[in-house]
Write a structure and sequence with these properties.
Distance between the termini: 40 Å
Radius of gyration: 18 Å
CATH class of the largest domain: Alpha Beta
Shape: globular
Length: 231
């Protein structure tokens, strides 16, 4: 039997929304499956100040290795706007916290273990160095730059996401090739205004099929609105 295409379309819309924030989708409400146990990754090959990349299906997440199995990385998160309790903030960022962080443009540069940062994905080390060549800063300077920025920060897809954070730390200039590519894709999409109508229809169909929920309603609202504003 063929699978129902509507839930698949709704899932794709959610993935596109999470693409904007460069993080791995988590299971709603539960905080997602637990990350691999400590020791899953061989950190002996990482050096302080290394730029770590975790490729996903639709995006890449970035961090700066600080040594001793610690990685600094930027994630959208609403919680730092309401509390300074480090124990609460340091818990795994749920979808609700993440999406509210995107909407309110708030984030946190946090320090997690390699396991929590990579969440089972493969890790590339200093893969972007080839693009910057003579601009690579010293490893210790890169790590110190990252450490100074740890804490609550503003979030912006265009100006302050996880890639901007690591390129500033390791190369001295905040750049996001991923965002540039996304914006080019959006420009291509809005040339055909039918894509906006298609997004609305798929979103409405997913709501009818799956009910009102953040995973169906938010993409239905924000994706067409974003395309309309960009046009």
């Amino acid at each position: 039997t063929m699978k129902n295409p509507v839930p698949q379309a709704a899932s794709l819309l959610l993935e596109k929304l999470l693409l904007l924030v460069h993080v791995r989708p988590l299971s709603a409400g539960s905080g997602g499956e637990p990350p691999p146990a400590p020791g899953y990754y061989d950190t002996s090959c990482f050096k302080r100040g290394d730029l770590l990349e975790v490729p996903r299906t639709l995006f890449i997440h970035f961090g700066i290795y600080l040594g001793e199995n610690r990685v600094a990385h930027l994630m959208p998160d609403i919680l730092p706007a309401f509390t300074g309790d480090r124990r609460q903030i340091q818990q795994v960022v749920t979808n609700k916290r993440l999406i509210l962080g995107v909407i309110t443009k708030t984030a946190s540069i946090r320090v997690d273990t390699v396991e929590d940062f990579a969440y089972g994905g493969s890790i590339l080390v200093n893969h972007m160095d080839r693009l910057f060549q003579d601009q690579v800063l010293g490893s210790e300077e890169a790590a110190r730059r990252a450490e100074k920025l740890v804490g609550a920060t503003a979030y912006s897809l265009l100006w302050n996401n996880c890639e901007h954070f690591v390129t500033y730390g390791r190369y001295g200039a905040p750049v996001s090739f991923q965002t540039d590519k996304f914006c080019e894709t959006v420009k291509m999409i809005i040339r055909d205004q039918r894509s906006v109508l298609a997004s609305v229809l798929v979103g409405l169909a997913s709501i009818v099929c799956l009910g009102l929920a953040p995973s169906t309603t938010l993409p239905t609202i924000f994706i067409p609105f974003f395309l309309w504003m960009a046009g």
